[in-house]
Design a protein that fits this description.
By secondary structure, the protein is mainly alpha-helical. It contains nine helices and no strands.
Length: 209
C-alpha cells in the first residue's frame, strides 16, 4: 500500500494547485461583479450613454448590434465602459499601464469575503452555503421579472426558446457543453472531495444530492 499512498499524495498536491488557480481567477470575476454592483447604485447607469469622460468619439448608441458590426470603428458604451473605465486596457503588451485602484479594492474585498467564509473551516462554510445556494435563485427570479416587463421581451424569449438544430453539428458547441459540465461538477478539482471527507462514513450521499 505505500506505493498507492505516495501516488495519492501527488494527486492531492495537484488538487490543491488546481483549486488554488480556480480561486485566484474566480475572485477576479467576483471583483468585477462587485465593481459593477457598486457602479449600479446611480440614477443613470454609467455604461448606458456616451456622455462620460472615458467615452471616445467612436462611441455610438446603436439600436442593434448589426449597426455596430457594419461599422467596425463604432463601439457601444458598454464596451467602452468595460475596456476603458473598468479594465483600463493599454495600447499593447509593451505598456503595462497603472493600477486600477477600484478593481484592486474590489479584489481585496473578494478575498476578505473568502477569508470570513473559511475562517472556521467547514462549520462557517457550511453556514455560508445556505446563502450562496438560495441567493442566485432569488436574483434569477428578480431579473426574470424585470426582463419580461421590458420592451421586446417577447422577441427575446422567442429567440431563447427556439432551438437551432443546425448548431448540433458544431463541435465547438459540444466542447463548450462538456467543459461546463465538468466544471460545474468539480471533477478532479479536489474541493468536492475535501468537503465530502467531513461526512460520516455511512452518510447517505444519495439523499444529500
Amino acid at each position: 500500500m505505500p506505493n498507492v499512498y505516495s501516488t495519492g499524495t501527488g494527486i492531492g498536491y495537484g488538487m490543491v494547485v488546481v483549486s488554488g488557480l480556480v480561486c485566484i481567477y474566480y475572485n477576479v470575476i467576483i471583483a468585477w461583479t462587485l465593481h459593477f454592483l457598486f457602479s449600479s447604485f446611480t440614477s443613470e447607469l454609467p455604461w448606458a450613454s456616451c456622455n462620460n469622460p472615458w467615452n471616445t468619439d467612436n462611441c455610438t448608441m446603436a439600436a442593434n448590434h448589426s449597426a455596430l458590426e457594419e461599422n467596425a470603428t463604432r463601439i457601444s458604451p458598454t464596451q467602452e465602459y468595460w475596456n476603458i473605465r473598468v479594465l483600463g486596457i493599454s495600447s499593447g503588451i509593451d505598456e503595462t499601464g497603472g493600477i486600477q485602484w477600484e478593481l484592486a479594492l474590489c479584489l481585496l474585498g473578494a478575498w476578505v469575503v473568502v477569508f470570513f467564509c473559511l475562517i472556521k473551516g467547514v462549520k462557517s462554510s457550511g453556514k455560508v452555503v445556505y446563502f450562496t445556494a438560495t441567493f442566485p435563485y432569488i436574483m434569477l427570479i428578480v431579473l426574470f421579472l424585470r426582463g419580461v416587463t421590458l420592451e421586446g421581451a417577447g422577441k427575446g424569449l422567442l429567440y431563447y426558446l427556439t432551438p437551432d438544430f443546425s448548431r448540433l453539428g458544431d463541435s465547438q458547441v459540444w466542447y463548450d457543453a462538456a467543459s461546463q459540465i465538468f466544471y460545474s461538477l468539480g471533477i478532479a478539482f479536489g474541493g468536492t472531495q475535501v468537503m465530502a471527507s467531513y461526512n460520516k462514513f455511512h452518510n447517505n450521499t444519495h439523499r444529500d444530492s
